[in-house]
Amino acid sequence: xxxxxxxxxxxxxxxRLDRVLARRHSRVPFDWKTWRxxxxxxxxxxxxxxxxxxxxxxAPAEADTDDAFVERVTDALEExxxxxxxxxxxxxxxxxxxRPVFMPLFRQAEEKVAAKYPGFRAEAVASLLLxxxxxxxxxxxxxCRRAAAEGLAGVDLLNVxxxxxxxxxxxxxxxxxxxxxxxxxxVHAGEFxxxxxxxxxxxxxxxxxxxxxxxPTDPWLLELLAARGITIEVCLTANLILGAVPTxxxxxxxxxxxxxxxxxxxxxxPIQFGTTIDHEYTLASRLGLSESDLxxxxxxxxxxxxxxPDRKTALRADVDAAPxxxxxxxxxxxxxxxxxxxxxx
Length: 345
Ligand SMILES: [Zn+2]
Fold this sequence. Notes:
Elements: E1 4-10, H1 13-24, H2 32-42, H3 47-52, H4 66-82, E2 85-92, H5 102-116, E3 121-129, H6 134-148, E4 154-158, H7 169-180, E5 184-189, H8 197-201, E6 206-211, H9 219-228, E7 231-234, H10 236-242, H11 253-258, E8 263-265, H12 270-273, H13 277-286, H14 291-304, H15 309-321, H16 329-337
Bound molecules: zinc ion.
């Protein structure tokens, strides 16, 4: 099985906690399939759909005890490993980085999954909202810098306005503070318009952009991304469901590769979008990517990963040693049935 990697995965704290609690109490979890149907038929594409992601909280924050936290992080990483990922970065917003012993709890979960899937590695990334009150943002940055010493790998920045040019003054300070602490930096930008891509790509310290789906509307942006060596985290299912592209065939993934821009794949919000990293690779193959192209995506992910040099060396050795079969049996069956957009997970 081709080894995969997921560089763009949000913790989905409440949906994931709901899944864990539902399993614990033998009840049915929230019905995201119906939620998706409503979203895609009743909400206009773009930011309006994106905002709906943070409107449903099927499990309460009070239930997120340390045990439940480890269980839900294990659930997210195990789902990724089971879908063929050898390396997964999990993003934590919702002030999770402020949680006492956050990194030791994360490592507990990683170890549990690695015990079942030998060679699997994971890192934690903190999502920071640049529009938060300065005191709260400063506290989160201070906590990220402290957690960096315990193994936090990077930060993920989000800014508003998302679809028109934003002010990046605070963003630049956060990038400097993060890189000074040895943290990698990725930024969400360019999902529903080409706004902010140039500003973000030009910030020293930013090595990855989440989405950048609209970069090809301006060929200069593709040249800029290539020249800056920015890796694009492409989340195909997310782009389809939120309407960043009208159809899979319209997705610019191949244009990125043709422009010598490294691309890695991500699941974004896999519970809410009903996807796995396996399914994302399958969609990429449907865009005409060959086995070696798909393997390149995994290598790109490792090159751009916010993990240690030693872990990267080990991951590259594992990818080199893996048999070159692209799809797991489950996905191969899905391809044959032609039911590519309904992974049913
Ligand atoms: Zn995202």
